[in-house]
Amino acid sequence: MTSKEPYTAAAGQVRKVTENATEAWKQGAQRLTDQANVVSQLPQVDLNQPVEQYFEFVQRTVDLNRDLAIRWAELVNSLTGAARDRAESFSQIVKDQADTLAGMAAEQARKSEQAAQDQAEKAEQAEKDQVRLTEVAERDQAKRDREKAREPYADMTKSELSDELSNRGLPKTGNMSALIDRLVEADSSS
Fold first, then answer.
1. Where are the domains of the chain?
2. CA distance 14 to 60
3. Inter-CA distances, 183 with 48, 92, 100, 177, Å
């Protein structure tokens, strides 16, 4: 076994975990942006700080692994014989620490993904609430518009309504509400 193999294995494992964490973060961010693009009136979500904290954490992890690997390499190069056996146990410690840091990086990525998913769910709920409020407002406005359009005819008698329909060349049959509706429809189409 060469003196580089444990370092290479540990570095490869850290790289793999970091890549997986980065991919998970990227997918979570993509889902968030896909949903955020649908709703233009949602509160703006600032993910800059969590992203920056995550990459600072990854950089500290890489720096720590590099420092430990350099110390280990220096120690291995300076030791001979029985001291090499001790160095191998030290390399196991380095490997264990790398495993721990890799686990921490994966956990940080999971938390970031969960935060992105939570934000996406909030955005989706806000969109649904906005659509519902818009529909209610539109129905209320349509009702007010209909009532306002009926006002000019509200005080007229059935006979007066029939005369007005006759003047416009419209049918005069039906109850007063139907006559008023016919006049309102004629007003809106002219």
1. 5-140, 155-189
2. 12
3. 60, 91, 79, 10
Give the number of other CB atoms < 10 A from CB of residue 63. 10
Question: What is the rounded CA–CA span in Å between residue 164 and residue 172?
Answer: 9
Cα–Cα distance measured from residue 132 to residue 138, given in angstroms and rounded to the nearest whole number: 10
Cα–Cα dist 158/174, whole Å? 10
Closest CA to 47 of 31, 67, 70, 68: 31
The pTM (predicted TM-score) of the whole model is 0.39
Rounded average pLDDT over 36-42: 55
d(Cα 21, Cα 116) in Å, to the nearest integer?
14
Residue type, 54: Y
Of 69, 59, 142, the closest CA to residue 105 belongs to: 59
